[in-house]
Design a protein that fits this description.
The chain has 248 residues and is of the alpha/beta class. The protein contains 7 helices and 6 strands; from the N terminus they run E-H-E-H-E-H-E-H-E-H-H-E-H. Bound molecules: ligand 8Z2 and NADPH dihydro-nicotinamide-adenine-dinucleotide phosphate. The site of NADPH dihydro-nicotinamide-adenine-dinucleotide phosphate has 23 residues, from helix 3 and helix 5.
């Protein structure tokens, strides 16, 4: 079952996938806004009615807008937190309560390269870091039910049309290439094969982990953002601070 909000895009995507499926697996799609609790409950129960089981859950839905943190309205902040953190939580909870508690299963959460912060997208950085931590807690709580849960963190380097449109510049991903040790963008296949690995028995001994698929970008400098030159940081020394010294 493939789910998101936009029916037309869903139909197009599933039609394309059906053409490429070589296994006897069936495929269906369903509208669901993961920010709405009842819609998530309905997605999982409908999936169970349609297919009779739920072996895997992949939480890939996500999104944000670029802006400085001081300009966020509460509505904008909540929209991003609900999409990236609360939506993921709701899908995990419903999959567990409706099926995986009794039958086991595997969950993979897609997050992002937020290890050094994400300037201009701090809301999503906070939400993705929270999902990284949620993954660890759920791995411990749900291990006894035979549930494994892991995350995949793509670098800021996997071209997507929606992302380029969202950021208003089709070249936005290419700007990152100099900051990626492997000196190229990543491919969608390089993300999806990591997800397949985590869903497969080949990863039977891995839970609570996050795999970074970022060409080494998270080890290197922060993407795109430069801190402007300024003189706002005052050094602290004993010599210059007699007043503080006298208080100690
Ligand atoms: C430099 C970068 C390096 C970028 C470097 C590259 C890094 C890439 C790393 C990550 C890549 C990806 O994730 S790729 C995937 C990207 N895809 C997307 O982001 C999908 C598009 N985004 C979204 O869906 C949205 O961002 C999101 C807010 C979450 C949901 O939008 P909705 O319209 O459904 O939300 P609503 O509930 O209606 O709330 C909308 C409110 O959000 C706020 N809002 C929405 N867009 C806004 C905007 N452009 N500027 C300010 N505020 C905005 C306003 O307060 C809106 O309220 P009003 O004022 O009342 O309207
Ligand atoms: N591209 C990149 O470089 C990177 C991507 N990522 C993350 O990987 C994931 C996939 O990214 P990508 O394919 O590039 O982005 P897309 O924007 O193409 O995909 C995001 C998907 O999330 C769905 N979605 C968004 N909000 C909701 C919602 N409230 N309920 C249900 N579905 C929702 C969208 O479908 P619809 O609009 O129909 O609801 C869309 O299919 C996202 O989580 C993204 O943030 C992370 C790092 C880098």
């Amino acid at each position: 079952m493939v789910a998101s909000r936009n029916e037309e895009r869903l139909r197009k995507a599933t039609d394309e996938m059906k053409k490429n499926i070589t296994s006897p697996a069936e495929l269906d799609h369903m509208q669901c806004n993961i920010r709405k609790e009842e819609q998530v409950q309905n997605l999982i129960s409908t999936t169970l009615k349609r297919f009779g089981k739920l072996d895997f859950l992949i939480n890939n839905g996500g999104g944000q807008f670029p802006a400085r943190a001081e300009s966020f309205s509460l509505k904008g902040w909540n929209a991003v937190i609900e999409t990236n953190l609360t939506g993921t939580f709701l899908c995990c909870r419903e999959a567990y309560n409706q099926w995986m508690n009794d039958n086991g299963g595997v969950i993979v959460n897609i997050i992002a390269d937020m290890w050094k912060g994400i300037p201009m997208m701090s809301h999503t950085g906070a939400a993705r870091a929270a999902v990284d931590n949620l993954t660890k807690s759920l791995a411990l709580e749900w291990a006894e039910s035979g549930v494994r849960i892991n995350s995949v963190a793509p670098g800021s380097s996997i071209y997507s049309e929606t992302a380029a449109a969202n950021y208003g510049d089709p070249k936005i991903f290419a700007y990152n290439i100099p900051k990626i040790p492997l000196k190229r963008l990543g491919t969608v296949e390089e993300i999806s094969t990591s997800v397949c690995f985590l869903l497969s028995p080949a990863s039977a001994y891995i839970t609570g982990e996050t795999i970074k698929v970022d060409g080494g970008g998270s080890l290197y400098s922060t993407m795109i953002f430069e801190v402007p030159d300024h003189k706002k940081s005052k050094a602290y020394t004993w010599k210059d601070d007699e007043e503080t010294k006298s208080k100690l």
